Amino acid sequence: METENNRPSLVTVVSVEDQMKDAYLEYAMSVIVGRALPDVRDGLKPVHRRILYAMYDMGNTHDKPYKKSARIVGDVIGKYHPHGDTAVYETAVRMAQDFSLRYPLIDGQGNFGSVDGDSAAAMRYTEIRLNKITNEVLSDLDKETVEFQSNYDNSLKEPVVLPTRIPNLLVNGSSGIAVGMATNIPPHNLGEVVDALKALIANPALTPRELMKYVPGPDFPTAGFIYGRRGLVDAYTTGRGVVSLRAKAEVEAVGKNDRERIVVTEIPYQVNKSKLIENVADLVREKKVEGISDIRDESDRKGMRIVFELKKGEDSRVVLNQLYKNTQMQTSFGISMLAIDQQQPKTMNLKELLTAFFNHRKEVVTRRTVFELKKAEERAHILEALKKAVENLDEVVGLIRKAANPGEAQVKLVERYDFSVIQAKAILEMRLQRLTGLERDKIVDEYNQTMALIAELKSILSDETRIVGIISKELDDVRKNYADPRRTQFIEQADDLTIEDLISDEATVVTVTYTGYIKRLPLDTYRAQKRGGKGVVGAGTREEDFIWEIFVASTHDEILCFTDQGRLYWLKVHKIPEAGRAARGKPIVNLLNLSTNERVQAVLPIKEFKENMYVVMATSHGVIKKTSLMSFARPSKKGIIAVTFDEGDALVDAKLTDGTQQVILVSRMGHAIRFAEEDVRPMGRTARGVSGMRLEEGDKVIGLATLNLSDPKVQILTVTEKGFGKRTLLEEYRVQNRGGSGVMTMKITEKNGPVVAVRQVHEEDELIVASSHGKVIRTRVSEISEVGRVAQGVKLINLDEGEQVGAVAKIVEKDEDESADKIETKTEGDA
């Protein structure tokens, strides 16, 4: 570009878009290659490499006194790493922490932090030097084994990579976040990695899966457990995977009072012990982890020891699994084996990482051999001249004595014996003591040895198998000197242990009283009797209370508790207190988070939540509603809305169905309507529902039954308030459209009283009938008369004056091919 005066302009026109793109790419590559990611060859980032080289350069090795950390940091930032001193010091600190690196590269003296998250002391207080193992990382650095580059101001040289004999990238791992990519390589056991390298050298065709025989997984400095091996296969074959880590915990008995304590001695890698304890304390306070009475940190110089004291009677296995599930006692470690290979970031599998290190060692050994050959040839060149000089000693001495000055002597030696200038200088600089007979023999011997060495080095360079042999021997030496036993052990993945796993799966009778007391009893508490018997006491009640619900459920079941206000709560059967026959039980408000004046109206024991199952609900105003069971599969302590209804209405009952059954609604005045469940479409949790039955003035729905049409033996059992009941064939109830008035199901008289319950039954069923005064009778359904719809029925239980039927439940025997000593709960609507 030129100006009006035809003078060149200092302004260059460029595209802003192109300029920003180029600048960003340069920045990104600078971060990726020059800062955040390790080199696959030595496993170090530039800052780590510069720290180690600076310490090596000043002689700060393991066999020399410690030097102040501040001095090292100053040297590093002044010579090689023009960044903040804090970043350099924190890097040096991490290389000295035995809980961060599997094999620390720096030996620190002073406070270098702890697993509690404590930071290291200021650099002016701590001292450091290279660890002994770091000698292997820096070995042969002075033998032109690696390239050097200029430092940031071109005043010094620094190594591009270190000639490490240790496979440091796998042994100590690395983590870092670059631009658009990140690496997270876990540490490994040195002995295992060396074994894998030697196996790969012997058989280069080995696959990553086969190499896992030698490197089964990471080996973390904080030990602990690797929980399951599935993620390791992905990590070692693809370069990416996730593994689960677990703390090591043991259970100790406390005295003889049936109490235990959990003692944690090892925690997952990079977990802060102090924050872990604080987190557990918070969870115990919030009752998300139950059963812990006290927490103590008894860690000392001898090792870690975190103690969780358990309450009396608590099972340590359940509490331990709660800790694994809710705290960092179990964590995930995402493996991403990304490193810089030939100036390019690359995700590599286990074999590729080992191969890259092996290739690096081949280059280092080759360059070292070339360097040693060069030095040997230079020495041989000098020795050849010295040997010739002592062989012609008198003549050479005379020639030198006659020379006027060293320069003249050098020229005469070159002319007379065809020496090179270097050889001539070496002869002139030779001490007189070398002219003795013994010293002359030493020169000849050294010459012969040097020539033998040259032949050996040339042989090595001409035969790659010899280079490989040298690498193998050096790996053996490294293993012998530095390998140690594995710290992190493996445990096979298993299902988490829950409280249900420790409770036997057995049938139990659950009773709920009208005023809200609940309990459970073993089923064999009730003996079978003939109909009309007096029964046994099933629950102790007050005069104003009576049993209104009784059912049979497994101790592993989840109970869905539907309230009269249309809300749903969850309750585990095993959490219901077990009590004797005469006991009232425990107030259900202590087990459920019920609101004021809210009462449980229907309960459904659920073994498993399934997609093709539904809950059918009915209200006292004759409204019917169907909702998918999966809508109720996520428990909430505060409960959820199950159905919405008009003012003055209330939920009467809820049943479990498979969506293909038929529904019977029964009113207090003895009317019943039967219609297909398909007439009621599935609705959301908060929907109102549709009309199911039209009622007369003063009447209300008291019962809901669902019918499985695939069972031809099903019958309808109707029970009245005064203890009368009857069985009626299902075919006597014709199918109608929902919303009708229905047909008569029982003739209501002064003798039998209003209808209180309706059930679908079979002849082989057994029935439990409970009275308002707590009396319970168990009888066979086959002993109840089978009569028509308008009949009054027969007496099922003898009631005292003022006593009435409070609840009815049935028991169904299992099939013959199942265990005969167990029973299965069946509520109306079970498919």
Provide a quick synopsis of the model:
The chain is of the alpha+beta class and 831 residues long. The protein is built from 17 helices and 42 strands.
Descriptive overview:
With 831 residues, this protein is of the alpha+beta class. Helix content is 28%, strand content 25%. Strand 26 (614-619) and strand 27 form a beta hairpin. Helix 2 crosses helix 3 (69-79), helix 3 packs across helix 4 (85-96) and helix 12 (350-391) crosses helix 15. It is elongated, with a radius of gyration of 44 Å.
Q: What labels describe this entry?
A:
single chain; alpha+beta; 5-stranded antiparallel β-sheet; 4-stranded mixed β-sheet
Question: How is the topology of this model organized?
Answer:
Elements: H1 16-36, H2 46-57, E1 67-68, H3 69-79, H4 85-96, E2 106-109, E3 127-130, H5 134-138, E4 148-150, E5 157-159, H6 168-172, E6 174-177, E7 182-185, H7 190-202, H8 208-211, E8 225-227, H9 230-238, E9 240-246, E10 248-254, E11 259-266, H10 273-285, E12 292-297, E13 306-310, H11 316-326, E14 330-336, E15 338-341, E16 344-347, H12 350-391, H13 393-402, H14 406-417, H15 421-429, H16 437-462, H17 464-482, E17 489-491, E18 507-513, E19 517-522, E20 536-537, E21 547-554, E22 558-563, E23 567-572, E24 586-587, E25 600-606, E26 614-619, E27 623-628, E28 640-641, E29 651-657, E30 662-667, E31 671-676, E32 690-691, E33 701-707, E34 715-720, E35 724-729, E36 743-744, E37 755-761, E38 766-771, E39 775-780, E40 794-795, E41 805-813, E42 823-824
Parallel strand pairs: 8-17
Antiparallel strand pairs: 1-3, 2-3, 4-5, 6-7, 8-9, 9-14, 10-11, 11-13, 12-13, 15-16, 18-19, 18-21, 19-24, 20-39, 22-23, 22-25, 23-28, 26-27, 26-29, 27-32, 30-31, 30-33, 31-36, 34-35, 34-37, 35-40, 38-39, 38-41, 41-42
Helix pairs in contact: 2-3, 3-4, 7-12, 7-17, 12-15, 12-16, 12-17, 13-14, 14-15, 16-17
